[in-house]
């Protein structure tokens, strides 16, 4: 009897936690099947945030889920911050839950550990990528 190899997750599947964090902060997002010139479109998607194309994201198929989430969160945050002026009601993303005007910083506690957002002024204020609760209450 042969073992079945699990299917390789699609980039959209790996992007789910990041999409949650964008949506919780009031930003609409979607991925479009597209790739930069000369890249394999199976592993690339164009990121659209609140109707604005902000860049391309690559999802490495043989990368563990925590590393994928960290890479996608890092590149998404960079793309959003680079395009704030074009995004309607754009502001630092993800919003700092400690009510500061800066975005939260991305970190992880080591290889294979799930990444998290934290306030750069107060590291005790932290949320796992995919669990950000949006604006502070």
Radius of gyration equals: 16 Å
**Order of H and E elements:** HEEEHEEE
Number of E strands? 6
Structural class: alpha+beta
Shape: globular
Number of self-contained structural domains: 1
The main pleated sheet reads as: 3 strands, antiparallel
Task: Give an account of the 3D structure.
It is globular and about 45 Å long. The chain is an alpha+beta fold. Strands 1-2-3 form a three-stranded antiparallel sheet, with helices on one face. The mean pLDDT is 90. A hairpin with an 8-residue loop joins strand 4 and strand 5. The chain starts with 10 loop residues before the first helix and ends in a 9-residue tail after the last strand. The chain has one domain.
SSE map:
Layout: H1 11-24, E1 29-32, E2 44-49, E3 52-58, H2 65-82, E4 105-107, E5 116-118, E6 126-128
Antiparallel strand pairs: 1-2, 2-3, 4-5, 5-6
Helix pairs in contact: 1-2
In short:
The chain is 23% helix and 19% strand.
Descriptors for this entry?
137 residues; alpha+beta; 2 helices; single chain; 6 strands
